[in-house]
Amino acid sequence: MKKMLISLFLMASLTCLANDEGGFVKSNLKENMNKNDKASMLIVHFGTTFDDTRAKTIDALNNDAKDEFKDFKVTEAYTSRIIMRRLKERGIEKNNPAEVLDKLVNQGYTHLIVQSSNIIPGIEFKTLEKQVEMYNDKFKEIRIGHPLLAKTENYKKVLTILKNDIGELNKNEAVVLVGHGTHDSANSTYACVDYVAKDLDLPFYVGTIEGYPTIDNVIKNLKKDNIKKVILTPFMFVAGDHANNDIAVDWKETLEKNGFAVKNRVKGLGEIKEIRNLMLENAEFMTTHKEEDMISKKLFYSKQKDN
After folding, report:
1. Which has the minimum average pLDDT: 7-16, 125-134, 138-147, 281-290?
2. How many Å separate Cα 19 from the centre of its chain?
3. CA dist 137 to 39, 110, 214, Å?
4. Ramachandran quadrant class, 28 (left: phi over 0; alpha: psi -120 to 50; beta: rest)
5. Do 194 and 215 contact (CB within 8 A), yes or no?
6. Would you report the helix, strand and coil content of the chain in percent, each value rounded to 5?
7. CA pair distance 122, 33, nearest whole angstrom
8. Among candidate residues 112, 76, 73, 74, the one with its CA nearest the CA of residue 95
9. pLDDT tens readout for residues 32-87
10. In angstroms, what CA-CA distances link 300 with 19, 73, 80, 303?
């Protein structure tokens, strides 16, 4: 009887913790640290060669993190080798995640929060996860925060923030949000954002440069809804090469050829303080929670079933 009561108590506790934040359990990182332990936060960006947008987005997020997480050593890393090479040619040195992680290990850091400025949990983010996992035995604990749109609850938040930032629209006017797109399954995020926009009765249409929905899909839906004027803007963290060329030039010309009056809004999501706040909320969440160990959970329940 005693053994059964203990098992029931453990199972109830596990269920309560799991249901608290789906897929996560409460665990305060700082409370797990010993006297001589050191905590760091690594902010990871794809990067950009455009100095102006870097200052407004990447540097701004880094500075926000330093202000918000004063007990952590905040560092940054870039993942695009091409961008890092081009910046180096201009005398600007940027490290990749492995280089920064090696430095943190050598400097004695024991606990790490990793937060990326990725919009979706696509190839870039999944590659980062795999790279960070290689350092699990070099830190006492590593936790990785979700990208901006890893949780569907953030879709509404992001769209509402954009609505307020863009302002009131005229009759027969709409906003076209253009993301990068990916061959990864996470590309479905873009179509979902478009769906949520319609659910919120927002005249926002989402397309991608290298994925689905395509510009043809966007044009089809704009015409179906009798839209005449378009505000064209990147659905990306930085307004870099894609925003200034693929979107502001190529997409604009295509839309105009299809009869739309187009206004460019070359502004990265990272320029909006509220968007950066959402990203740092993901990092903050990881300081008090960790991902649930699903293998251990399934093993626990399988043993209860056997008993």
Report:
1. 7-16
2. 23
3. 16, 10, 43
4. beta
5. no
6. 50, 15, 30
7. 32
8. 76
9. 999 999 999 999 999 999 999 999 999 999 999 999 999 999 999 999 999 999 99
10. 16, 37, 42, 5
Helix (H) or strand (E) holding 213: none
| Catalytic status, residue 45 | no
Q: In whole angstroms, what is the distance from residue 207 CA to residue 219 CA?
A: 9
Chain-centroid distance of CA 71 in Å reads: 23
pTM: 0.88
Pick the catalytic residue: 146, 180, 242, 289? 180
How would DSSP label each residue in 217-271? HHHHHHHHTT--EEEEEE-SSS-SHIIIIIIIIIIHHHHHHTT-EEEE----GGG
What type of residue sits at position 189?
A: T
Q: Which residues have a Cβ under 8 Å from the Cβ of 149 and sit 6 or more positions away? A: 119, 120, 121, 155, 158, 189, 193
Q: What is the pLDDT, as a whole number, of residue 298? A: 58
Go through the domains of the chain in sequence order and give each one's CATH number.
2-147+273-306 (3.40.50.1400), 153-269 (3.40.50.1400)
How is residue 170 annotated by DSSP? -
The CB density around residue 84, as the number of other CB atoms within 10 Å, is 20
Note whether 41 and 69 are within 8 A (CB): yes
Distance separating the N- and C-terminal Cα atoms of the chain: 12
- Determine the distance from the C-alpha atom of residue 172 to the mean position of all C-alpha atoms in its chain, rounded to a whole number: 31
